[in-house]
Structure formats: C-alpha cells, structure tokens
Amino acid sequence: MRALDRAVAALERAAAWLVLPLSLLLFIQWPLRDAVQAGSREANDLAQILFALYVSVAVTAATRARSHLAADLLAHGYGAAWNARLARAAQLLVAIPAAAFVLFAGAGATWTSIVQLERFPETVDPGYFMIRFAVMVLAALVLVQGVLDLVMPRRGAH
Amino acid sequence: METGGLWMLAAVGIGMVATGLPAWIVLIGVSLAFATGGIAAGIFDASFVAAIYPRLIGLLENDLLQALPLYVLMGVIIARTPLAETLFGAARSVLAPTRRAAPLAGLSLGVLLAPMCGSVGAGVAMFSRTLHPHLAAAGLREERSMALVCVVSTLGVVVPPSLVLILLGDAMMRAHTEAAHIAGLNDRIVNTQDVFHAALVPAGIFVALCAVVIAWQARGIREATPVRPTRAQWITAAAATLMLASLLAGVALGYLYAVEAAATGGLLLAIHGFATRTLRREHLGAVLHDTLSLTGALFALLIAANVFTLVERAFGTDRWLAQLFSGLGVNAVLAAGLGAIAVCALVLDAFEMIFVVIPLVAPALLTRVPDAPWVAVLVLLILQASFLVPPFGYAVMMARSRLGTRVPTPALMRAMLPFLAAQLAVLLLALAFPGLLWRESASLAPSTPPADAQTLEQMLDRIQGEPADDAPGK
C-alpha cells in the first residue's frame, strides 16, 4: 500500500508540470491563428489532451492536499475521530462506488477508442482516445485514493 | 416526484453543513442515493446513469474549461510573489493627493487582480494578506478595512473576464439552450462573450459607487505619506498594470479568447517571477502543486454538479420548475428565481452556485424571461450581494476566518451597508433599465415574448415525449 501511495504521489508531482506546456500551447494558439494562420487547431487539440490528463490527476491531488471546498460550520466542532470516521464512510459509500461505476461504464468505449486510435471528430487530428483514457485515469485514481484512505488514513483527512 | 431535485438540493445543504465533508462528495453521495431511490421506486430506469461517462468526456473536451488551471496558476503566482504589494504601493503613491490613498489603491488592486484570483475564497485570502495590514496602518477602522477586503474580493464576480464570469457564461449558455428547447424560443443562444459585455457597464457603475463610498468612509483619516516605490517597482507596476489591463480588455472586448489571455498572463507572470527572482526554482514545485490541487478541487465540483444535474433532470425537476414558473407573471418569476439564488448564495461559494443552483433555476427562469444576458447580470449582482451580507455572506465568513478578527456583526453591518446600498442601486438600475447593458448583437435584445402558460404546457408535453440526449430512458 505504501508503494501505491508513493506511486500516486510521483504521478501527482509529474502531472503538476503539465500546466506549463498547457499554458505554452494555449498561448501560441493566438500567434498561430492570427500571424501564421496555421497550426492553431493542432495546438488546441494537443492542449486538450494535456488538459484532460492534467485534471485526471488533479482531482486526486486535491483530495490528498485537502483542497476540496467544504462547509465546516458545524464539523469544526466535531472530534478528530468522528471526522475521520465520516471521511472513511464517504470514501467507502460514495467515492469508491462512483469511481468503480465510471470505470465499469466507460471501459468498453475507452478500449474500443484506444484500439481504433480514435481521432478528434472536428479536426481529424490523432489523439482523441487520450481524452477517453483520461476519464479512466481520473476514476482509477479516485478509486485507488479511496482505498488508500481506508487502509492507511491520513491525519485530519477529509 | 418531480420535486425530487429540490429535495436533493435540501439534502446537499444539510449534508454539507452537518458533515463538513467536501462539497463534491456530498453532491455525488446525494445524487447516488436519490438515483438509487428513483430507480427502486420506478420513477426512471437505470439506463440513464450510463450518461455519466459521456458527461465526463464532455467536461474534459470543453475548450472553455482549459482556462480553469490557467486562471488558478495566475492566482497562485500572484499570491506567492510580491507583485500585489508592488502594485498596491505604486497605486497608493499615485493616489496620495486624494488623502484616501490606501483604500482607493485597495479598490484599484481589486479591479485589477480580483478577476485573476479564481474564486471569492482565493480573493479573500490574497487581499487579507496584502491589503488589510496596509489599511489598518493607514488608520482605517477595522470593520471598514474588513468590509473593503470583502468587497474587493468579490469584484471578480462582476468584473470581466473572471473565472466566475467565464463559468457563469457557460452555465447560462446551457440554461438558455435548455430553455429554448423547452419553450420553443428562437433567440440566438447567449455565450460567454455576451455575458462579459453585459456585465461591463453595471460593474463599472458599481466600482465608481464603491470609490465614492470609500472616499466618504475614509474622510478624516490621517494617512502617513506612503513610502515612494523604487524605480524598479514603478516599472514593474506599470508593466504589470498594462499587461493585466490589456489582457482583461482584450478578452472583454472579444479580441482574445479567455484561455489565450489566461495562458499569456500565466506565462508572463512566471517569466516576470523568474526574471526578478521573486519566483525561485525551489518555490516552483509548490506553485505547481497548489495549482494542481486547486484545479482539482474546482474540477471535482464540476464533475459532481454534472452528476447532480443529471439525476435532478431524471426526476423532471427542471421541467416541473418551468411549468410552475409558466403560471406566474414575469416579475413574480424574476423575484422567485433571483430570491432562491440569493438565499442559496448566502452559504454557497460562487462555483457551487454556478454548478449546482444555476443549472436548476436558470432554465426555468429563462423560459419566462428570455433576455439571457440581462438575467445573467442580475444573477451576478445578486450573487455578489449575497457574498457580502453579514454574518453569513461567504466573503464575510471567509474574511473573519482569515483575519482572525472579532469585529461585532452590527459594526461590520454598518461598514458594509453603504457598499450593499451601492450594490442595490446597481441592481435596481439594471432591473429598471435593461437597455443599460452593452449587447454585442441586437438579436440578444429582449425581442421574443415569454411563453404563455398554455403554450409552455404544450411544449412540455411534446418534449416529455422526446427525451434529450442524456435524459432518462423513461
């Protein structure tokens, strides 16, 4: 489990850098469109893939960093043990089943898309299958993090 | 069981407050529970839940949402570098002859940076750190300083092209499409650019009124002569102001796409940080990590809201609300819709409002009041006012927590009242004079008469026989 935890952390660190090429690609769209008048749609499609991969890791990164928005009007008065129990119940009853359902519902379509190397419908650029793949990564990471939080809960986790 | 969506909303409110769990977990939990109940009770069949996967794909391939991490990156860089302080110092020096330099410089800083902050919460965090100590040192009373921090933090709600406006524009576009489908309207569907344009004039009036309020509140304070910025600070402040103002204007006027402006801003801020060594390599990891986790927090909410609205639609609450509104006059519909939004906004952040409440209320509202840019602006003004009303306004609660002050509510209320009055004045102006809004195209003017009750019922009957793409199979 610790190895899995370290693997998720490493993936998180690597994915965090994606925002820089994403910014660069979206920035160069502007001169490509207005000055070069070519390549802006390709830059946009590539940016779309990076964006999808970025947010697929970001949701779990927010869970690990406890950055999710929450209203603790009453909960800040609860004891740490009660909060931890609530957090584990939420993982067991909500996050894990929801992620498992998305994996189950999307696995077939994603696999077909990968096998066919599905292209972007509007531009016919390659790589659209990566968007579908990113949904699977997102759900898989939520599921893995849910299991990690159940097995080795983080201090003050919510 | 068409009221299911309203019960879901109530369950989310109670669940969030009672458990303190992340909003996205509560939203998905409530959605799953109600979906299970709906399927078990035979209200809809199980096949509709398969629409969750294509909805997630839709989120990941949404061009507009690419702006989200970029705005967050800009906000994180601004918060972690001394740029805000530099801008504030320069503005204070420029405004020194007014003898109200600190609070007016604070307002200027809000106009420039609040649209870049990402959210009201992030705005409160940044302005509490950069603005509050200077305002206190300038002799502004604590409750007035806190009120100003709250007001400038919410400027991103109305000043384009903030992330809140981008996402509200997207939500209004979806709501308008749905309303046009339900009521058979032929209007051009509103887009994000329309909402930016429509928000410009009311935002300008509000900022001008705030300047008047600040000048009045700061009368009699004796500000020490501010320390003059160094030459390098002047250059930085001028360049940053020019860059930020150009980007904001470029997007608001339609020369730039929001994502391109955000990407340009993020890159330029990073380059500036490295060039001036205010953003060191060892801090870059933290900046990138903060950006990733804050983006994840917003995106999780977006996912959860999509699941929530899917289940709410399965119950038919959106159609039920449209039918309910069809029996009311336009003024009553506006009052009911905007009132509901105002009440919810007292405890929910702008993003929770946009992702959860707006998709439920706005389509029904737009079936009767099809002037979508106008409705969007009214929603924005109501949202901003709701964040500012003590003691439960979101910005007020956040500022209290950030500043750690114990300003009594009556004192804060007195300090906030002139700003709320300014807000009310702008709201009344916008309500009374829809022509005040800047509209890109005449076709977005309120030309189409609202659907009458009988027509709407016929439309609803017809639509209920033709399920939408992700509507339940039954």
Observed structural traits:
heterodimer; A: 158 residues; mainly alpha; 75% helix; elongated; B: 474 residues; disordered C terminus
Summarize the structure.
The complex is a heterodimer of chains A (about 160) and B (about 475). Chain A is mainly alpha-helical and about 160 residues long.
Describe this structure in words.
The complex is a heterodimer of chains A (158) and B (474). By secondary structure, chain A is mostly helical. In chain A, 75% of the residues lie in helices and 0% in strands. In chain A, helix 1 (2-16) packs across helix 3 (40-65), helix 2 runs antiparallel to helix 3 and helix 4 (80-115) runs antiparallel to helix 5 (129-151). Chain B has helices at 4-19, 23-40, 52-60, 67-80, 83-94, 101-113, 120-130, 132-137, 142-153, 155-158, 163-183, 192-217, 231-252, 258-275, 281-315, 317-326, 330-345, 350-368, 372-388, 394-403, 409-432, 453-464. The two termini of chain B are 14 Å apart. The model of chain B is unreliable at 445-474 (pLDDT under 50). At the A-B interface, helix 1, helix 2, helix 3, helix 4 and helix 5 of A face helix 1, helix 2, helix 3, helix 4 and helix 14 of B.
SSE layout and pairing:
The complex is a heterodimer of chains A (158) and B (474).
Chain A: H1 2-16, H2 19-36, H3 40-65, H4 80-115, H5 129-151
Helix pairs in contact in A: 1-3, 2-3, 3-5, 4-5
Chain B: H1 4-19, H2 23-40, H3 52-60, H4 67-80, H5 83-94, H6 101-113, H7 120-130, H8 132-137, H9 142-153, H10 155-158, H11 163-183, H12 192-217, H13 231-252, H14 258-275, H15 281-315, H16 317-326, H17 330-345, H18 350-368, H19 372-388, H20 394-403, H21 409-432, H22 453-464
The major pleated sheet of chain B works out as:
none
Helix content of chain B: over 70%
What share of residues are in beta strands of chain B?
under 5%
What's the count of strands of chain B?
0
Principal-axis shape of chain B equals globular
| Tally of individual helices of chain A | 5
- Rounded to an integer in angstroms, the radius of gyration calculated over CA atoms of chain B is 23 Å
